[in-house]
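Hypothesis: this fold can be encoded by more than one sequence.
Test: take the structure tokens below, design a sequence, compare later.
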């Protein structure tokens, strides 16, 4: 009789111990997928690849650029990115400060420094420093950007970017 009770008890114990590991593995997998989506966004943004970037946005994405009206939907985001990334070559440093994943939603906070060089060759490169927050949702199994907020730090004493020989870049 003891042996008959022992087997179900052992099986139940194994299930209890195994369940958290499966949950942790699933959470780890979601986190890895989210981190890959963040990395992919930065790769395409830095490369100026608007077409690849657009595959990472949900249809009804919203963006709130500082000092501008809210952009709603992929076409508005695409027009904004095409204008910005078409006007400058971008030298970018980006760091994720914080992120969290909760089932089908996630966010990431980051800070960045951009050196923007006009593609037409005119003008002096500009330095931008700022912070951003992106909201993500799982859409058809993929992490998609649904919200973008960003700001710029006021840098009145920052000199223009310079080349190795001391000339403006």
């Amino acid at each position: 009789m003891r042996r008959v009770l022992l087997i179900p008890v052992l099986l139940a114990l194994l299930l209890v111990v195994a369940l958290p590991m499966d949950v942790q593995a699933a959470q780890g997998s979601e986190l890895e997928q989210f981190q890959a989506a963040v990395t992919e966004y930065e790769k395409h943004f830095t490369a100026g690849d608007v077409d690849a970037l657009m595959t990472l946005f949900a249809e009804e994405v919203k963006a709130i650029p500082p000092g501008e009206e809210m952009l709603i939907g992929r076409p508005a985001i695409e027009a904004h990115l095409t204008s910005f990334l078409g006007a400058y070559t971008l030298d970018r440093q980006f760091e994720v400060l914080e992120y969290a994943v909760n089932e089908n939603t996630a966010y990431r906070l980051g800070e960045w420094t951009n050196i923007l060089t006009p593609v037409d060759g005119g003008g002096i490169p500009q330095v931008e420093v700022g912070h951003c927050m992106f909201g993500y949702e799982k859409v058809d199994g993929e992490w998609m950007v649904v919200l973008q907020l960003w700001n710029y730090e006021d840098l009145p004493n920052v000199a223009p970017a310079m080349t190795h020989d001391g000339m403006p870049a």
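Residues 1-26 have pLDDT under 50 and may be disordered. DSSP finds three helices and six strands in the chain.
Hypothesis status: open.
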